[in-house]
Each structure stands twice: as structure tokens, then as C-alpha cells.
Amino acid sequence: MRLPESASGCKIPEKMSKKRSHAPRRKPRADALRNRDRILEAAKASFTRHGADASLDEIAKQAGVGPGTLYRHFPTREALLEAVYRTELERLAASGRKLAETMPPVEALRAWLHLFVDAVAAKKLIGPALNTLLGDPKKVFEASYAQMREAAGALVRRGIDSGDIRKDLDPGDLIHALVGVSNVAGGADWQQSARRLVDILIAGSRPAK
After folding, report:
1. Tens of pLDDT, residues 26-41
2. For residues 30 and 69, what is the distance between their CA atoms, to the nearest angstrom?
3. Which CATH superfamily is domain 28-75 in?
């Protein structure tokens, strides 16, 4: 969906458009970045509740912006869904670095795995809507998944270096175990099961005495 020119303002003359194309690209203003973040938060909540057919006008309203502002940031429904999904994975990857700065190795890994469970929950809810419009999200967001795997690996290596985690632990095994329980457990309480599994995985990750 795109706004018509009448809704987005006057059409830029062709000559002016070409002239501006050679100008250096400006950094987004702080208020524009805040608007974008609010739109993404509102979109995540709305897509989670209503799926791919969530009202974009309602998303704009919940974000406290006009429809024109939403469409300037995300010209299509597909672009908004993609941005929501990508942002969630990138936030998960970045959280690993923050946890490593403030928590001991094992507790940082435990906390990150809990955040991973929350991210999987969002994926289970948002993913079907995303698949409807974009296809397999793993193919669309391979770079984001790579960041996630790298974050898990950094936390595991930190624990190995400190002697708190066994040297043969593969971070991919932790991720696969949590994804597996989310796929197998279809009940509403699967997140509680996954969180209990985190404690079991952490216990099994400790060096043998």
C-alpha cells in the first residue's frame, strides 16, 4: 500500500528531484527516529494480535503518528512486517553484548536464553503473518540470524574462558533445543516449559566436577 501523491504532499518536480539526488544524504532527525521506533512497537503488538491483516491506520494511531508518517517510513505492509521481524532479531543479538557487560558469564547466558525464548514467542505469532507476505523469513533475514548465532557464541566463549562452561559446548545446540521445544509444544504454556529447559541446559553446560 502506498499513499497517493495527494495524501503525501506536492509532487517534487523532476528537475528538482534529479538535483537533490546528488546532494549528500542527511541523517534522520531524532524525532523521525522516535516515530519509527514507536511505529515498530505498535506494529509488533498489532501483528501479534491480529496477524498480517492488522489495520495500518490503527497501528499509526497507536504509535501516535499520522498515516502519512507511517507510510513515509514503511511504504508497504510487507516493508513494515519485515522491519518488525528484523528489529526483534537485531535487538536480541545486541542484548548479548549488554548482558556480558553487566552479568557473570553463566548468568548472562541464562538471561540471553530467556530473551531468546521471548523472541521465539514473537516469531511464532508474527511468523505466520510474515510467511503469508514474504515467504520463508529465514531466507529473508539470514544476516539477522547470523548476528543471533554470533551473540550466542560470544556468550558461550566468555563462559568457556572463565572456566564456568564446558569447552565442548556448541552454542547452536542451545538454540536448536529451545526452537525444538517451541515447535513440539503447541500448548499455551510452552514458554514456561522452554524457560525450565533453559535451567536444564545451563546445568548441563557446566564443567564436570
Report:
1. 556 788 899 999 999 9
2. 14
3. Homeodomain-like (1.10.10.60)
